[in-house]
Amino acid sequence: MIHTQNVAQLQSLMTSGEATSRQIVQAHLDAIAQQNEQVGAFLETFDESALKLADQIDEKRQNGESLGPLAGIPVAIKDNLCIQGEMTSCASKMLSGFRSLYTSTAVQKLLDAGAIPLGRTNLDEFAMGSSCENSAIQLTRNPWNTDYAPGGSSGGSAAAVAARMAPIALGSDTGGSIRQPASLCGIVGMKPTYGRVSRYGLVAFASSLDQIGPFARSVDDAAALLQAVWGHDDRDSTSVNVEFPSLSASELSPIEKLRIGIVPEHYAEGLDPEVQTAINNAIQTYKDLGAEIVELEMKHAKYGVAAYYIIAPSEASSNLSRYDGVHYGHRAESFENLTEMYEASRGEGFGPEVKRRIMIGAYALSSGYYDAYYLKALKIRRLIAQDYQQAFEKADVILSPTSPTPAFRIGELSDSPLQMYLNDIYTIGANLAGIPGISIPAGHTTAGLPVGMQLLAPAYEEVRLLRAAKMFETATEFHLAQPAEVA
Question: Could you give the residue numbers annotated as active site?
Answer without folding.
Answer: 78, 153, 177
